[in-house]
Amino acid sequence: SSSTPTVSCPETLQxxxxxxxxxxxxxxxxxxxxxxxxxxxxxxxxxxxxxxIFSTKGRPADNPLIVHVSSLPMLxxxxxxxxxxxxxxxxxxxxxWPGALTLLFPSDPNIIPAxxxxxxxxxxxxxxxxxxxxxxxxxxxxxxxxxxxxxxxxPSPTRAEHVRRxxxxxxGIILDGGACGVGVESTVVDGLHADGSIRVLRPGGITVEEIxxxxxxxxxxxxxxxxxxxxxxxxxxxxxxxxxxxxxxKYRHYSPAVPVxxxxxxxxxxxxxxxxxxxxxxxxxxxxxxxxxxxKVGIMTPSDSALGTCSLPTDxxxxxxxxxxxxxxxxxxxxxxxxxxxxxxxxxxxxILIEEVQEEREGLAVMNRVxxxxxxCRWIQFNNSG
Length: 386
Ligand code: TXA
Ligand code: MG
Fold this sequence. Notes:
- Belongs to the SUA5 family.
- The protein has helices at about 10-25, 45-55, 70-80, 85-95, 115, 130-140, 160-165, 210-220, 240, 280-285, 305-310, 330-345, 360-375; strands at about 30, 40-45, 65-70, 100-105, 120-125, 145, 185-190, 200, 230, 260-265, 275, 295-300, 315-325, 350-355, 380-385.
- Residues about 245-250 have low confidence and may be disordered.
- It is built from 13 helices and 15 strands.
């Protein structure tokens, strides 16, 4: 049985053509939806177009960009002539492309401009699955470099409205594709090491568990299953940590205009984390108000956690809850995380508190973003007993 596809929406086609014109003829960046977060795209192979991404975002020049393709033939135009894709990469691409997985490839400086790679020997490439992203790249008929469509250091946008508030007047066209499904950025993977390991530089929309499962299934027959190593969890790399090549290592990241506190409530927090009971923590927050006005506190917790279900003391504190889905569904937490930070900021809260989630499945990416948003001085062990 076959069904006839209906193609309507002349508006969508017109919008894609206008966006493509802006990219290809005017060499200006365009904001567009992907399944992870909104991207700020420009022609990857044109130095002046790519440089406008950096100026629009206020992005440091030493932070490399991901190149987005809409097809495998387009991927191959970007790779060195003699390069053969490894079996591990082939397995990952088969299962996760198009989708929220970015892979590092060797970069030929005669193909990829140095502004994209920040002069590194590798280039990060992904094939997004969002139909608008795919269509835009295909209509422009060129690979697009695209970081998240936010001012450098801010939470990534997951709705067109987030982009508009942040980059209004700085970008000519914002394509609105509704809310992004995944809600956190792609997983960045480096499988180019001589030891055959698959190194996760940035946890993201594709989980480490899924990557491990696919490599096990696809590579068992070949006799060797690559190890999956997560940077900072399974290994550390001083060179990476000194450079910006691991997303968010060097620069402030994911931070709204107000301070964010990460509350450890169930797992043992890392060494050096402040321990506070709820009473003294709330007292310290009241002290941040001007005495007359209540302190406005935004609180992001799973809807079924102890903190998510308790009644909050209202003496000189005005709470706004932003539920993050249930504990059992970390993909929902990931979907809501940046929206929560940006919505609470917009709501005018003075402080945002986020409860920890387990660092499993999408929870690993969530905690990676939350730790960066809070900065290490705002991790607190929060005992609700006080
Ligand atoms: O989901 C995503 O990946 C989104 C959407 C728009 O596709 N894009 C995104 O881009 O998150 P951006 O620029 O915000 O984050 C990409 C990160 C950079 O922070 C950079 O450090 C890392 O990927 N990266 C890019 N090229 C790299 C390379 N050659 N080696 C190591 N890391 C690289
Ligand atoms: Mg970003």
